[in-house]
Amino acid sequence: MVTLTLGAVTVNPIAEIEYCPVHVSFLFNDLTTEDMQRNLDWLDDEVVDIVNEKLGFSFRAYLVKIAGLNVLVDACNGNHKNRPTARWQHELDSSGFLDSLKAAGVAPEDINIVVCTHLHCDHVGWLTQLSEDRWVPTFANARHIFSGKEFDHYHERMRTQGSAAANHGAFEDSVLPVTESCRFELVQNDMVIVDSPQGTVRLVPSAGHSIDHVSVSIQSQGQEAIVCGDVVHHPIQLDMPLMPMRSDFDPALAAQSRQDLLNHCADSGAWLLAGHFCKYPFVSIRRHNGVFRIKNAASAGEKNGVD
Fold first, then answer.
1. Tens of pLDDT, residues 53-109
2. Measured on CA atoms in the order 39, 3, 307, 112, is the torsion positive or negative?
3. CA 76/CA 33 separation, integer angstroms
4. Which residues contact 172 (CB under 8 A, 6 or more apart)?
5. pLDDT score recorded for residue 302
6. In whole angstroms, what is the distance from residue 183 CA to residue 171 CA?
7. Which end of the chain is more exposed for a tag (fewer CB within 10 A), N or C?
8. C-alpha to C-alpha distance for 231 and 244, rounded to whole angstroms
């Protein structure tokens, strides 16, 4: 398993589905064949399949090992969820997520903290598992951290519009069971999660894709990585940072958050950890003709750590 080392901190990608092709329309309403063609000099045909109008995609969380703590950022789709309106995860039955945790040397009961960048259904699914017809927390010993504004928004949607309106039912079957039986905190979007001599983990406001989306900054010994959630969905947005994803809550705000994040990573050298970038769990980026390109990348297939 590829590992990113940041000073005294390590980060492992926790892949539920490392590679799946999705139709362009699954992600973008505005991406043209000409846009795809223009980027074939730096994106291969697994990432951009212009013939079939497909884009490479992944569903991935991240495990941060810091100061003796195991911090999980995001929780992918989950198994056995009834999602008729989210067909990609409907009744999914995959061992990928738990296998990836095991490969990183961690069992669900070893997770100390769970942080969700936002509460969309493909970022909260593994918070619960089905046990005798009940949804029970997967990480029973963990402290769960959610944006208070995000939680209240979806709680109200479920109350007024029904379960399906709150992220395809994910709020009811993946979030509420955690709040009923585990430690959880509803927090501001700039909270420091871990503050230790070894390093820090903190939330960074990055709203737009959802009402109070956050990124997660990991810093140690002058090095930084940012788990960006859904601020960036696909590498082609490095070339088109203003292009919205089709389900952005506020497209203009999402574009501003994306531009701010990419500028920060290009200027500071911070690693970008984008859970939906197929093949490349860790990338650094550079400026290129007013937009951005991948400068360095760690492949999911690499066995050695990244310095």
1. 999 999 999 999 999 999 999 999 999 999 999 999 999 999 999 999 999 999 999
2. positive
3. 29
4. 158, 163, 166
5. 40
6. 17
7. C
8. 10
SS3 of 16-75: the string is: EEEEEEEEHHHHCCCCCHHHHHHCCCCCCCCCEECCCCEEEEEEEEEEEEECCEEEEECC
> 171 near 165, Cβ under 8 Å?
no
Residue 191 φ/ψ, nearest 5 degrees: -70, 145
C-beta of residue 212 within 8 angstroms of C-beta of residue 150: yes
For 80, the token pair is: 């056995």
* Distance in angstroms (rounded) separating the CA atoms of residues 27 and 272: 20
Architecture of domain 3-306: 4-Layer Sandwich (3.60)
Q: Which of 13-27, 212-226, 251-265, 287-301 has the lowest mean pLDDT?
A: 287-301
Query: What confidence score (pLDDT) does residue 49 get?
Result: 97
- In this predicted model, what pLDDT tens digit does every residue of 49-59 receive, in sequence order? 999 999 999 99
Supply the DSSP string of 106-167, one letter for each residue.
Answer: --GGG--EEE-S---HHHHGGGEEEETTEEEESSTTPEEEEEHHHHHHHHHHHHHH-GGGTT
Rounded distance, CA 203 to CA 194, Å?
10
